[in-house]
Amino acid sequence: MRKDDKDRLIEQLTREIQALKEELESFRLESGRLCQALRGRVSELEAELAEQSHLRLQAAGESEFLKAELDDLRRVREDTEKEQRSLTEIEKKAQANEQRYTKLKEKYTELVQSHADLLRKNAEVTRQMTVARAAQDEVEAVRREMQEKVKAAQEVAERQERDQLEQLQELQRELVSSRVELDSLKTNMASSQQSSEALSTQLVALESEKAVLVQSLSKVEAELAVRGDELERVQTSLATERESGVKTAEALQNQLNEKESREQALESQLVAARWSSLQGAVEEAEKIIRDSLAQIDDPAHISCTSSADYLASRCQASLDCMDRLHPTREAFLADNTGVSELMRVVTQCGHLVGDTIVQGSATSHMVPVEQADALSESVKTCGAEALDLLGQMKQRDSLAAADNGKLKAALEAILATAEKLRPRGLELQQGELGDLVEQEMAATSIAVESAAARIEEMLNKSRAVDTGIKMEVNERILASCTELMQAIKELILSSKNLQRDIVESGRGAASMKEFYAKNSRWTEGLISASKAVGWGATVMVDAADLVVQGKGKFEELMVCSHEIAASTAQLVAASKVKADKDSTNLHRLQQASRGVTQATAAVVASTKSGKSQIEDRDTMDFSSMTLTQIKRQEMDAQVLVLELETRLQKERERLGELRKKHYELAGVAEGWGEEEEGTG
């Protein structure tokens, strides 16, 4: 191999190594940029969490403001009817606070979605590291190829050196042979001179031959000298090229070692980032559990209720998530690459267990005292075990030994309690249960249609009879009720379509009625929710009719609106529990549910506005009253406020007892009594 070829090969390899270095540097910069973006996103999420905490504190401040406003109402000098409406206004503001809490919960759902986006970005970083490893393999292949080429050049140089040595030895042998022959000629010449002068002619010839031989010898020696110089130049050139090849190989090895060091540093950073992400997910799950435990101790939570069916579904979902936690944790401990799946499972477990705690506490508000105390204690134990498990998963040394057995036992205890409290049904036949679903959904649609028609009829009567502010108030209230009925009709239609998709995708070769019978718990939930929606629509129309006639209370209409919102939420939950999350009809159902929520808020707002207009029209005139009369009215108002506060407390206690009694009667209607007799 010539020197120019070797130089070109070395330059080519140098350029390729430089290109690989530039590509690795770009990978490193891109990885740094992605890590910086991830850290920025985490900071944004922390800021949004801080904003949520601020909104929660603001809600607490507004609750304190409501208490102060209640104290101010004690000094209001109005008549008995005015004081009663003021107290009702305070309850409406408390309900508004509950709506604000619902908005905070939706904001938290958006944060969960942002967290999922972070998980996808982390997967992209992992993919780029895989590309970097491929580039490293390519550099290793180039290094091996360079070593092979250097080795080949050395072998070529060694072969040339051996050939030249053989040629030199051959020339030396020829020189020795010539010298031997010359000596022989000299001997012959001496003997010829001694033996006879007659041989002089032959001697001259020999001398001539000697001169020729000497000339030949000189040529051979000169050629030998030239060959020696050439051999020395070749050896020098070979040593130089060998030294250059060694230096190039050492430079390549140093670059390779430096690249491996950088890759090890990047790998260490990636492992640290994965562990930091996992700790963030665990801490977020801990916050969710603590927030759920704080909610069940909040006095405002006592008005929240839930069903044993929904509690059982949430509890079962939590247990399923617990079953996925162990294999994902083992996969992460095996190679530290399954962090995104483990983060997703930890976050999902936090949400499901937190929801189970809240739903368990809400269900305890609807059951007898002994069962309520046992259920409350079970959910608190579940929260404590969940925090203990998450605390172990936050530390590297305790992650492998973290055991979710106690948490699963606590969830199974809650599930067993929910199963005992769950309505068992009336043991309907397969055909009867399937027909009952269709009948109840049809009856609900008819009830909503009838309610909408009655509202339209009331609106026409009001326009014909009422005038002024009363007509304006009635039109606004009835218009908002009409919009609510339309939203409920859209919700029922979306629910039917989604149920049809669920049945078609899950029944297989079975019939629709067999599918309903096989999933009896889900079917009974649909029936119960559908009944509640139809009943709520009928009651709200009756309340609206009384308000328009001047015989009813605005508060009754607002309570009916909230009851319809709760019933539709139950129908949505029952409809989507078996639905595919990517279903188009599921998205339509969720959109219809938001429409019902907005329409309910519009009914409440129009009712509040109408109430304010009516009250402003009946404002008391104090201009003609004396100081004594005003003082007397003030004392009477204070006495009335105290009486109303006492009555309000008693009515709240009565409401709690009514809810518990309603739960017991619903259990009897659904077959609980028959089950207890059978077990007795």
Write the layout of secondary structure elements.
Elements: H1 3-73, H2 80-195, H3 200-296, H4 308-335, H5 339-364, H6 369-393, H7 396-399, H8 405-421, H9 430-465, H10 468-506, H11 512-518, H12 520-549, H13 554-576, H14 584-617, H15 627-669, H16 672-679
Helix pairs in contact: 1-2, 1-3, 2-3, 2-5, 2-15, 3-5, 3-6, 4-5, 4-8, 5-6, 6-8, 9-10, 9-11, 9-12, 10-12, 10-13, 10-14, 12-13, 13-14
Describe the structure.
The protein is mostly helical and 680 residues long. Among the domains are: 176-248; 304-422, Four Helix Bundle (Hemerythrin (Met), subunit A), CATH 1.20.120; 430-616, I/LWEQ domain; 620-680. It has helices at 3-73, 80-195, 200-296, 308-335, 339-364, 369-393, 396-399, 405-421, 430-465, 468-506, 512-518, 520-549, 554-576, 584-617, 627-669, 672-679. The relative contact order is 0.07.
Question: Could you name the key traits of this structure?
Answer:
680 residues, mainly alpha, Four Helix Bundle (Hemerythrin (Met), subunit A), I/LWEQ domain, 89% helix, rod-shaped, disordered C terminus
